[in-house]
């Protein structure tokens, strides 16, 4: 079957398809964060999603698009692993999950708790792919890519449909821009397709750890730069862009911002303490851009030339090893 890049219609259809299986997560505001950023920020709380992250959206959509129920296999540092295991349990199929040995124990435990069969490997993309391929050959399972697949991308984009609707209906606000963390780019691509499809003038910004800045490099060079040094406290953002996600990012993303490890940790603590939300460092990356890249953000304006003011920020997940994080604080 030939697969093509998803459209706004694909995202809208995915939203209807997965609606019975996922939460419509809240959108929250925080005056302290507004004061610190100089913006009016609207936080899409996917840390409160089933499985603790946005990934359940794409995993559920992908499983529901299979021609028949059958075992599935994937590789993931944690959030997609949990999502696929949970979605598979909800839909009554078996899930084999390859996880790097460095994945947080809380994520490994959650995958097993959802019924996923975990196989650990060394922390390289090649090892993850090789191990998943071996299991696929041994079990006959269908491989569900953690991010680089049109059905995954469309599913992740459903969170942006909600965010834009909620800010309009609940707050009477039309967003000028969105900030979305990027690892492999499935969420960023889906959100960009949804946002630009509904409002071509909205600014789409990617947020990435400086320590794993392959998206920023790829965006600047206009060619895919693979990730070769995946080490960051934002462990959910360590993968390379894919063949589906990269062209969407080049077409629909306005800029890619990077933040340091220190800024990520500081922001995580700020959100915990001031917003009373438990987020993982990957989710703090977008917030850190709003707080620490004010001048760069200010260089972008709305279509009418006015400054960007109303900004949506995706809090992509809350699956964190609390003891490990407390030690970093």
Could you please describe the fold and organization of this structure?
Helix content is 47%, strand content 15%. By secondary structure, the chain is of the alpha/beta class. It has 14 helices and ten strands. The model has no long low-confidence stretch (mean pLDDT 94). The relative contact order is 0.17. Helix 1 packs across helix 3 and helix 11 (261-275) crosses helix 12. The strands form two sheets. The chain has a six-stranded mixed sheet with strand order 1-2-10-7-8-9, sandwiched between helices. It starts with 7 loop residues before the first helix and ends with a helix. The longest helix has 22 residues, at 150-171. The chain has two domains: 8-53 and 149-328, 3-Layer(aba) Sandwich (Rossmann fold); 56-143, Rossmann fold (3-Layer(aba) Sandwich), CATH 3.40.50.1100. Keywords: Lyase, Magnesium, Pyridoxal phosphate. It comes from Bifiguratus adelaidae. This is Tryptophan synthase beta chain-like PALP domain-containing protein. One of its GO terms (molecular function) is magnesium ion binding. Its cofactor is pyridoxal 5'-phosphate; Mg(2+); Mn(2+); Ca(2+).
The first-level CATH class of the largest domain is given as Alpha Beta
- Corresponding CATH architecture of the largest domain: 3-Layer(aba) Sandwich
Could you describe the largest sheet, including whether it forms a barrel?
Answer: 6 strands, mixed
Distance between the first and last residues' Cα: 48 Å
Tell me, briefly, the overall form: globular
- Count of helical segments? 14
Strand proportion: 5-15%
Rg over C-alpha atoms, rounded to the nearest angstrom: 18 Å
Give a count of the beta strands, DSSP E runs of length 2 or more: 10
Q: State the helicity in percent bands.
A: 40-55%
Count of the domains: 2
Keywords: Lyase, Magnesium, Pyridoxal phosphate
Domain Tryptophan synthase beta chain-like PALP: 18-298
Organism: Bifiguratus adelaidae
Protein name: Tryptophan synthase beta chain-like PALP domain-containing protein
């Amino acid at each position: 079957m030939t697969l093509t890049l998803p459209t706004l219609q694909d995202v809208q259809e995915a939203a209807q398809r997965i609606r019975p299986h996922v939460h419509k997560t809240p959108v929250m505001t925080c005056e302290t964060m507004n004061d610190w950023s100089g913006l009016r920020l609207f936080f899409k709380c996917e840390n409160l999603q089933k499985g603790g992250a946005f990934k359940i959206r794409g995993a559920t959509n992908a499983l529901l698009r299979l021609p028949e129920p059958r075992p599935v296999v994937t590789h993931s540092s944690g959030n997609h692993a949990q999502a696929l295991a949970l979605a598979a349990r909800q839909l009554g199929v078996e899930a084999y999950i390859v996880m790097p040995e460095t994945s947080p124990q809380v994520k490994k435990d959650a995958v097993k708790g959802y019924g996923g069969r975990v196989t650990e490997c060394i922390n390289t993309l090649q090892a993850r792919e090789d191990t998943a391929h071996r299991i696929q050959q041994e079990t006959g399972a269908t491989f569900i890519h953690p991010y680089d697949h049109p059905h995954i991308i469309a599913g992740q984009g459903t969170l942006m449909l909600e965010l834009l609707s909620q800010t309009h209906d609940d707050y009477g606000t039309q967003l000028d821009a969105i900030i979305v963390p990027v690892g492999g780019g499935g969420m960023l691509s889906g959100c960009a397709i949804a946002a630009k499809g509904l409002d071509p003038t909205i600014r789409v910004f990617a947020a990435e750890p400086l320590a794993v800045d392959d998206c920023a490099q790829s965006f600047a060079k206009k060619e895919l730069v693979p990730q070769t040094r995946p080490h960051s406290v934002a462990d959910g953002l360590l993968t390379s862009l894919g063949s589906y996600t990269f062209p969407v990012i080049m077409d629909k993303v306005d800029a890619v911002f990077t933040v340091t490890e220190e800024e990520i940790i500081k922001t995580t603590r700020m959100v915990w303490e001031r917003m009373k939300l438990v987020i993982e460092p990957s989710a703090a990356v977008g917030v850190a851009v709003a707080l620490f890249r004010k001048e760069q953000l200010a260089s972008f304006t709305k279509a009418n030339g006015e400054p960007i003011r109303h900004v949506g920020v995706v809090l992509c997940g809350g699956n964190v090893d609390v003891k490990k994080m407390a030690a970093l604080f």
